Amino acid sequence: MLNAPLPKAAEHGILDALRQIGYGDSLVDRDVRFNFVGSFSPYLEPASLVAFWAQPFDQLTSAIGVRSLAPAEHAAQHVAALGKYLWAPYSIVARPDYCEIWETLPANGVREPILLENSVSYGELASRLEIRRDDFRPERVRERKLRWRQMSLYEMAKEPNAFFEWAFCPTRDQLRRLLNKMLQQGLHDHLDTQVKVQRLRWLLRFTGVHIAWDKGWLPCRSRNSASELVSAASQYPVPLQSIPESYELAENFIDTIGASVDLGIADGGLLSQILQTNGLIEDLRREWKLYPTPPDIAWQMVATIPMEAVPEDKRLIWDGTCGTGTLMVVSMERLRQLSQRDSKEPGQLTYNLRGNDRQPLLADLSRMALDTALGKLEGPNWEISTSDVLGFTSDSFSQRPSIIVGNPPFEAKGPRADLAIHVIERYIEILQPGGMLAVVLPRSILGATGRYAIDLREKVIRDFEIYELWELPQGFAPNVSSEAAIICGRKRYPHEVRRSAVVWKLFEPHRRTPPLTDVVSSPDVWLQSKHKAIESPLMLRLRGRFQDFRVLSDVVSRKRITEGIRTGAEGSIDILTEEEEGACPFLRGRTNMVPFYIPWHQRPRWIRYDSPRLDAPRRKYEFAFKQRKVLIARWSTGGSPWAGQAAVDEQGLYPSDDFISISPEPMLSCELVAGLFNSALINCWLRLSNPSRTIRVGECASTPFPKTWPEQESQKLQRLAEELSFLHRKLAEKQGDAKTLFQELEAKTLDLDEAVYDVYRIPEELRAEVGAYLSKHNKSRPGFDKALVKERGFEFREAIKVFTDEDSRTMGMLLETRKQRQLTQAEAEELDNLLARWERAQILWSTAALSKERPEWVKSLASSSTEGGSL
Question: Which of 123, 445, 434, 116 is nearest to 296 (CA)?
Fold first, then answer.
């Protein structure tokens, strides 16, 4: 149900909250129409309520839009419409029992709306908005929107969406293009790397000085004077000796930017965005391993940290690899919000917030970004060092950090541990007990089998209360080809008892929809596995379903499962495009196959298999290569959840090491094995087992396999595999109508998925979870142009439901009744449900900051649990 009517209780709660931050009844209008584009869309239905900062009520004066939605309805497109067409910087999405707070026109350079707070009860809404008063109050919204209005042709022609389309986006993008052009002109390809770094540092300093001039923070006699620009840049943000070409660079800067360009509207994210796009040459980006955290991810990371739990005088935040300063800027904004909530001046921010980056250029950039966000010049006062992060120890600080945030560089070469592992280990050592950690790391570290990765995981699980763990797919940030994860948690005190819940979130690349949210009920289960792998809730549920299953190697001899031939550099000359005597048919490259079909004849290759130049010919498996077998492409497209694709080889092809070869015994048909490895269930299992882009032989051999396989189901799966092979062959050879063939392929492929689910006895809800996981990555299924999975109408939890005072009172009464052994069956089920919800919500009550919001009954339960008691 779209655009649900606004419940009375929700309306009263929202109006009371708006009054508290300055929006009286005279500044609120109901059922505000903003569909100026002349077409119907459910996202352009009138807003339930809109708060304005002044009269008359129009797009310029809109401040906070309110949209009422049903519980299952995604909010992202609705709030985007409120921002784009109503120009409301903030939005409240009203659900029947709770609401969400959104920033619909983010000031930090993000195009998409940002979810600021989720699952806020209407009773809490006033206090949550009060915390954000400095941003939400009418005066601040007025200042913000008038500044944007000055940038546009809005007065010239009041076109629909003129503010957003003509001012907000184009001006920000134009500034970015101008600054990128300026940087590219100053950095020539023939220059030495060190000279490029020096030039880049001065050009960024010129930009920072220009921003300070236009904001009125530094005096300026002439914007067209190269000498004045160089003089100012040699002192800001910290003193720096000029270089011979600094005046030439200053003249080019003035020619490009010009005195007429006003950088006074720049925010703390502008300089960072330049380097995230094309402002930093690629060789420097690779050398520095500089891939800044996207602003929306940074905001969500820092919002996850319960900074309220740390006394204000002990809130010492440190970023050991601060880069362009994105996380530091967001942390500063969070500190300011907390200071304002406590009715205190921000003060001491330069003491509370510290950073480090081994590149002086990036330290400069962080200082300038912090000044721009703070609204005044503090350049040299920011404590940002330029040392190697691995050189820090707990003794390097007079006061150890109580909060550490970071996005360390990723680098893994050969058998060496990823650089991020060493950085995070150093963070763990430095962080004081009770301190908070929010850090980005490669997704592969969660399951890697190397010794360093295992040691790190064990240390994190044993020493930290992990509040949340996020999965970020490939493409979550510009120029980033790898997947990432984020761990947010608190370092335990000695002898502290571990809690029993971790929130797990899976984001899509562009984060246009809320993440899939789930809960790991007991992190101890991670310690029980051989490699201490940190597995997702979905993987744990699948593993639970398969615990009594056999594995593939129980029915197919391990001698019949192998990687293909690795030719090596020298052996590549033994790959032939024309057949010669003694050569064997050779299959290379995963692009030379589709699910169920190998079109080898389209690009035939042969190999001199007896050549001594081959690096790993796998000669003891030659008998298997000659047989009828299943070949599995072991390399997946970067970021794709579809781990591989399989086909039956009828031609006795010798495969390259791009493939895994499986030669089943006669009791198990090749078609059945190929059907399994092309199914949604097994692809999901392999991807969760190993998030890297390659399937390993051991993972194939360990694929779950049912103990019993009824003849009817076996025949059905084999028949579907044969039909899919026939259809793929017809499509590849262009026999018949392509559209009709695709429709048949889609239908048969979905039938195959259901047949495999049936064999593995997978319940409907778990099937829906597998499908949602595979489709969330926005990657096509092999052989198709979309993530083909069956739609089941199942909605994942977007947030953990709030555990209310009423819930805790009910749970208390039921617990007392249970003690007296008087529970009915219905009451027992209700108690089980409440206990499960309380366990999940327990993470929200783990800090002193939230203790005052906890009901007394829950306080006593939490304290008994902390002491090792059990409900």
Answer: 116
Single-letter amino acid code for the residue at 852: K
**pLDDT tens profile 653-690:** 999 999 999 999 877 889 999 999 999 999 999 988 87
What angle do the packed helices 193-214 and 360-374 form, to 10 degrees? 10
Q: What is the DSSP letter of 519?
A: E
Largest Cα separation within the chain, whole Å, is 91
Residues 6+ apart with CB under 8 A from 841: 800, 801, 802, 803
Contact 684, 699 (CB under 8 A): no
Helix H or strand E encompassing 47: strand 47-52
d(C-alpha 865, C-alpha 871), whole Å? 7
CA distance 705 to 281: 50
- State how far the Cα of 307 lies from the Cα of 454, in Å rounded to an integer: 29
Using only the alpha carbons of the chain, give its radius of gyration.
30
pTM over 0.85? The answer is no
Q: Are 70 and 87 in contact (CB under 8 A)?
A: no
**Whole-number Å distance between alpha carbons of 235 and 224:** 18
**3-class state of residue 70 by DSSP:** coil
DSSP state of 216: T
Residue whose C-alpha is closest to residue 332's, from 377, 368, 302: 302
Cα angle 177-183-187, degrees, rounded to a multiple of 5: 145
Nearest 5°: the CA angle 451, 453, 456 is 110
What are residue 90's phi and psi, to 5 degrees?
-130, 155
Residue 752: both structure tokens together: 């195959």
Residues 6+ apart with CB under 8 A from 577: 604, 605
